[in-house]
Amino acid sequence: MIKYKIAIFASGSGSNAEEIFKYFSDSDSVNVVLLLTNNPSAYAITRAQRHGIAYKIFDKPMLMDSGVMLKWLTEYDITHIVLAGFMWLIPDYLVKSFPNRIINIHPALLPKYGGKGMYGSKVHEAVKNAGETETGITIHVVNEKYDDGAILFQTKCKIEPSDDAESIAEKIHRLEHASYPKVIESWIIGERARD
User: Fold this and answer.
1) How many C-alpha atoms does 162 have within 13 Å on its Cβ side?
2) Tens digit of pLDDT for each residue in 88-137?
3) pLDDT (0 to 100) of residue 193
4) Domains of the chain, start order
5) Rounded to whole angstroms, how far apart are CA atoms 72 and 36?
6) Mind telling me the catalytic residues?
């Protein structure tokens, strides 16, 4: 009996979403049942279709309209929300409707390199330009501010002098794909994430 149902919010390629789809495909207790995207051409939609997962496309007014979004989330019996490369701030009504049940992954070691406008290659460029020798990922609970909620998990990787933003991104993607599904499972089922 599936007790927990996830909706994933994604804006782009959806490589993290795909890892999450695969990880929970055989789970007896946690299932991904819905993909929500603000980008009609997001490759994440193709990934969801391949896994037989329903999807909805929305724009900013629809996101801000609690009636629309909460109707969809109720319709699919969503218990938890996972952000996987979603670029917009989550509105207050959603944070209040899903208290401590929305999670995000950020491609840096928060509180460094977080906040509005810090996403994707912009983060990796900032890390490289600052001369950092390590970076990593942060998985955190979502609140009303960008990249500000309680940190659940962090893991690091080294930055070599020869690395550029693109090679840093590849290292980060490997960390994300290896860690995010497991941390989601631990978070939902209530155990502490183990490295």
Assistant:
1) 0
2) 999 999 999 999 999 999 999 999 999 988 988 999 999 999 999 999 99
3) 41
4) 1-99 (3.40.50.170), 104-195 (3.40.50.170)
5) 10
6) 106
Q: Return the amino acid letter for 176.
A: E
Q: Which residue has the tokens 């989550």?
A: 90
For 163-195, how does the pLDDT look when each residue is reduced to its tens digit (9 = 90+)? 999 999 999 999 999 999 999 999 999 854 443
Nearest to 113 by CA among 104, 101, 125: 125
Q: What is the mean pLDDT of residues 59-64?
A: 96
d(CA 88, CA 10): 10
**Sheet-wide strand order for 102-106:** 54-57, 30-37, 4-10, 80-83, 102-106, 134-141, 151-158
Residue-by-residue DSSP string for the chain: ---EEEEEEESS--HHHHHHHHHHTT-SSEEEEEEEES-TT-HHHHHHHHTT-EEEE--HHHHH-HHHHHHHHHHTT--EEEESS--SPPPHHHHHHSTT-EEEEESS-TTTT-STT--THHHHHHHHHTT-SEEEEEEEE--SSTT-SPEEEEEEEE--TT--HHHHHHHHHHHHHHHHHHHHHHHHHTPPP--
